[in-house]
Specification:
Number of strands of chain B: 10
Number of helices of chain B: 0
Strand content of chain B: over 45%
Helix content of chain A: under 10%
Helix content of chain B: under 10%
Oligomer: heterodimer
Radius of gyration of chain B: 13 Å
Shape of chain B: globular
Largest sheet of chain B: 6 strands, mixed
Order of helices and strands of chain B: EEEEEEEEEE
């Protein structure tokens, strides 16, 4: 079945960086974009950006001020999110999700809790 | 960026009720609007896309309507599993920001 499996929870110090991975399976990896969405405790959903799995082109959210990098490895069908200069405001559950410019977000990863403290 | 405004923010209802959630967009979207359900501690789930198309496996008590700037999600005959938070989201746009959410509670 189609699924996205994310890496485990992380605890980071302020100023550090974090990498979250998202392994896709059950579909042709290069046919879909992957987006990243995060949710701070008790808050709503924030779209962070997306990557085209075939070309590697990325569109990051402007609110992240250049702190985010997204990459895709077609050989392992894995997408990576790197977030730098962490602050307590980055504490959230991070989701990868299948979906991009013209597609709704139809398959979600299980979420990765990143705690900055 | 497109701004999405959902109303109400919180909605109280009973099992069996019919409820409607509204989402207003700051720009015209045609029908490029999706609805998601999120239960506590779980990842969101796609319910409806293209404003009114039910995602596979979603019960028919869920329906969506609207176009351009105003959209609605209706649940007809609330079930206990439906008490959750609902989000709207435009897609087919460069920055697909979510509405702020509507919490449906008993």
């Amino acid at each position: 079945q189609v699924q996205l499996v994310q890496s485990g929870a992380e605890v980071k110090k302020p100023g550090a960086s974090v990498r979250v991975s998202c392994k896709a399976s059950g579909y042709t990896f290069t046919m879909y974009s992957i987006s990243w969405v995060r949710q701070a405790p008790g808050q709503g959903l924030e779209w962070m950006g997306r990557i085209s799995a075939d070309t590697g082109q990325t569109i990051p959210a402007q609110s992240l001020h250049g702190r985010v990098t997204m990459t895709a490895d077609t050989s392992t069908t894995t997408v990576f999110l790197d977030l730098r200069s962490l602050t307590s405001g980055d504490t959230a559950v991070y989701y990868c999700v299948r979906g991009g410019y013209a597609d709704p977000f139809d398959v979600w990863g299980q979420g990765t809790l990143v705690t900055v403290s | 960026d497109i701004r999405m405004t959902q109303s109400p923010s919180t909605l109280s209802a009973f099992v069996g009720d019919r409820v409607t959630i509204t989402c207003r967009a700051s720009q015209r979207l045609s029908s490029w609007l999706a609805w998601y359900q999120q239960r506590p501690g779980k990842a969101p789930k796609l319910l409806i896309y293209k404003a009114s198309t039910l995602q596979s496996g979603v019960p028919s008590r869920f329906s969506g309507s609207g176009s351009e700037k105003e959209f609605t999600l209706t649940i007809d005959g609330l079930q206990p599993d439906d008490f959750a938070t609902y989000y709207c989201q435009p897609y087919n746009t460069l920055f697909p920001t979510f509405g702020q959410g509507t919490k449906l509670e008993i």
